[in-house]
Specification:
Helix content: 25-40%
Largest sheet: 7 strands, parallel
Strand content: 5-15%
CATH topology of the largest domain: Rossmann fold
Number of domains: 2
Structural class: alpha/beta
Distance between the termini: 17 Å
Radius of gyration: 20 Å
CATH architecture of the largest domain: 3-Layer(aba) Sandwich
Number of helices: 8
Strand order of the largest sheet: 5-4-3-6-7-8-9
Oligomer: single chain
Shape: globular
Length: 264
């Protein structure tokens, strides 16, 4: 996944750098990376569906209290009837790029209220879009499930923090499948302890693999998956690669071309 630093500089005829997934931050980390070589990332419907399934699964797991029921099962306790008001679920998506837009549309299709925030305001049918710091605050006050799908840039580092959590209704939830550096882990733990955040679902972490002594492992309020929310579908990777070779040779626009100034 992450080529050793300096390796790309060894290829004098390098024409294109292809990331096998949506993220490209690992490419930018190489200080010796040849400049001026186009970088493309792979995004496809298979990956988008996989990401959407992860968010839908975990929103419902958190909303329907499956961890609570699992604990009762261990004690062989039949719980009293509980009513779940799914109409009250309001999902706010951070990042409305290719993946974020697909996730928003999938969640909307199953009847959830969905809104989204991005660097620039988007026009997506049925999805209220926000942008800028003021727009983020507007979205947060009506978001009880915050879903992060932002690219990893200096601007998004640590964006999931105590200030953001405190803007949300008390007892809300946080889901992150963007990058681990976007979550201030200590802020999340403190917000869980004081009840501002009720639960979380995390697929990415500051350090991966997650250290064995990390408190997330034993915290039942946090659902964990090992950075596999969106599957890398090799046939789609190969197709994007071959299509871009054809496009490059014919001076056509590349699919998934990364803007180096923006970092995605």
């Amino acid at each position: 996944w992450q080529m050793p630093h300096g390796e790309l500089a060894k290829f004098p005829n390098l024409k294109m750098i292809v990331s096998m997934a949506a993220g490209v931050d690992h490419v930018f980390l190489d200080p010796l990376r040849p400049k001026g070589i186009p970088i493309v990332r792979v995004t496809n419907p298979h990956m988008a569906r996989s990401m959407g399934h992860w968010f839908l699964m975990n929103i419902l797991r958190l909303h329907r209290e499956t961890v609570y029921f699992d604990a009762l099962r261990e004690e062989k306790i039949w719980p009293p009837e509980i009513a779940f008001d799914t109409d009250s679920v309001s999902v706010g998506i951070l990042g409305l790029g290719y993946l974020g837009t697909h996730v928003a549309q999938m969640l909307k299709a199953v009847g959830l209220k969905v809104q989204g925030w991005s660097r620039t305001e988007k026009n997506i049918d049925g999805i209220q879009s926000f942008s800028g710091e003021f727009g983020l605050d507007q979205m947060l006050v009506d978001t009880n499930f915050l879903a992060c799908l932002l690219p990893n840039t200096q601007a998004t580092k640590g964006i999931l923090n105590f200030r953001v959590f405190n803007k949300m209704p008390q007892g809300s939830y946080v889901l992150n499948a963007g990058r681990g550096s976007q979550l201030v882990e200590l802020d999340l733990l403190q917000a869980l302890d004081n009840g501002q955040i009720r639960g979380a679902a995390l697929d990415v972490f500051e350090t991966e693999p997650l250290p064995t002594n990390h408190p997330f492992w034993t915290d039942k309020r946090i659902l964990l998956t090992p950075h596999h929310a969106a599957e890398v579908y090799l046939p789609a990777v190969v197709k994007t690669f071959l299509d871009n070779i054809y496009r490059s040779r014919n001076n056509e626009p590349l699919i998934g071309l990364v803007d180096e100034e923006l970092g995605y």
